[in-house]
Amino acid sequence: MTGPLAFLPIHAAGIYNTDGTVSCSLGDIAISSYTPSLSALLKSSQRTVSEQAGVELLVVSQSNTPGSKALPGAENELLQIRKHASALKSLQGKEATVTQVLSMMKKSRWVHFACHGIQDTADPMDSGLRLSDGLLRLSDIIKEPLLDAEFAFLSACQTATGDKDCPEEAIHLASGMLLAGYRGVVGTMWSIRDDVAPLVADKVYAEILRDGKPNSARAAQALHTTVRGLRDRSYSFASWVPFIHMGV
């Protein structure tokens, strides 16, 4: 999705009451998934999804990145994911360097980032994820196609935020992950709450890792159910709206 619509949370469209409750919304009748372009959607739909037990999931967790605000929820997020993943490799703190993370991404079909995200509006290709020794830039991620890539969860702020000066070009971290080879991506349109991110991760992975049969094709459904649950439990609009699914 490009143009002005890229900045609107279409998945949250509905009739909202003054007390914060919802009379009706798109989420009541449809599961939303975005795509930056038709070619990206076609490319991802041509690949099959694995349902093999033990698919390795890489989790990159940064609770105290140098020069950035602490994210205590990142550690809790890792704990929540670990409850559901039978095969999990984690990179935390100082061990989560740009070089090490890139190396592990090439070996892992699924990847989850719990860290700070940066959207560079001047040069979207310089947008990235803050790691222990610097920024993992989008330009670094897409240099070499990740042939075995399947699913990425970007639990960081503004990973699916477009550039207001180039609305026709959907260039951000989430769309870049599709370009790098991932079939499906969960990203965030705005900033997200540190205490809500672990809740979302817990519910999403409980579904897509259900019964010991990893299936990333269930990600859109899982995210839909999760954010709708937050909405129905009276979490603020800003708590659940930022999370979106892209791809297939």
SSE topology:
Layout: E1 14-16, E2 22-25, H1 38-45, E3 57-61, H2 73-82, E4 88-92, H3 98-105, E5 110-114, E6 117-118, E7 128-131, E8 134-137, H4 138-141, E9 151-155, H5 173-180, E10 184-188, H6 197-208, H7 219-232, H8 237-240, E11 243-247
Parallel strand pairs: 3-4, 3-5, 5-9, 9-10
Antiparallel strand pairs: 1-2, 6-7, 7-8, 10-11
Helix pairs in contact: 2-6, 6-7
Strand content: 15-25%
- The overall pLDDT, averaged over residues, is 84
Number of domains: 1
SSE-based structural type: alpha/beta
Query: Biggest β-sheet, characterized?
Result: 6 strands, mixed
The run of helices and strands is: EEHEHEHEEEEHEHEHHHE
Using only C-alpha atoms, the radius of gyration works out to 17 Å
User: Remind me, CATH topology?
Assistant: Rossmann fold
CATH architecture classification: 3-Layer(aba) Sandwich
Distance between the termini: 14 Å
Fraction of residues in helices?
A: 25-40%
Shape: globular
Major sheet: arrangement of strands: 4-3-5-9-10-11
CATH class, named Alpha Beta
How many DSSP E strands? Answer: 11
Low-pLDDT segments: none
Q: Specify the number of helices.
A: 8
Structure write-up:
It is a single chain. With 248 residues, the protein is α/β, with parallel strands linked by helices. 27% of the residues lie in helices and 19% in strands. It is built from 8 helices and 11 strands. It has helices spanning 38-45, 73-82, 98-105, 138-141, 173-180, 197-208, 219-232, 237-240, and strands spanning 14-16, 22-25, 57-61, 88-92, 110-114, 117-118, 128-131, 134-137, 151-155, 184-188, 243-247. α2 (73-82) packs parallel to α6 (197-208) and α6 packs across α7. The two termini are 14 Å apart.
